[in-house]
Specification:
It is built from 6 helices and 2 strands, in the order ααααααββ. The protein is mostly helical. It has one domain. Helix 4 runs antiparallel to helix 5.
């Protein structure tokens, strides 16, 4: 991949990710953190990204978690090594980096409350936090209690 196509891909992917957030600081973070190592993303987000409440954190986490897994499924639609495959892989990686960052913020809150974070089965630890902030688990997907109308998904 030449440098100009990599730059174009970075712009396109950042714009695609930013569509899901209406907060300018999140959009800026997505653009700045595109295709960076997780360590850099964590440092950048910790320094520049302020979440105002637990509720806001839950909303952002649910959205990023959803997008990470939704986009990950697209990887299987393209032949390995193609530009489309590479683009989807980068989008997937970036969504998981954002999701992991937000999940770790939740874990920090839970640890302060005395909750032990297990190596596996972490969704069980996340459930009470997400539920007290308006979400429930539906087979690994966080759904808003407010938006859910009882329709079976």
């Amino acid at each position: 991949m030449n440098e100009s196509s990599a730059a174009k891909m970075a712009k396109n992917i950042s714009q695609e990710l930013a569509k899901f957030f209406n907060k300018q600081e999140i959009v800026d973070a997505i653009k700045f953190c595109y295709d960076r190592e997780r360590k850099f993303i964590v440092e950048y987000m910790e320094e520049n990204f302020r979440i105002q409440s637990e509720k806001e954190l839950a909303v952002l986490y649910a959205q990023a978690h959803y997008e990470a897994w939704w986009v990950e499924d697209d990887v299987y639609n393209f032949e390995m090594g193609t530009p489309e495959y590479e683009k989807v892989c980068k989008i997937t990686d970036d969504w998981f980096k954002i999701s992991d960052f937000l999940r770790d913020k939740i874990f920090a809150i839970l640890k302060d409350e005395g909750v032990v974070i297990p190596e596996t089965g972490q969704i069980e630890v996340l459930k009470p936090f997400m539920e007290r902030n308006g979400y429930f688990d539906r087979n690994g997907w966080w759904l808003s209690k407010k938006e859910y109308n009882g329709t079976m998904i």
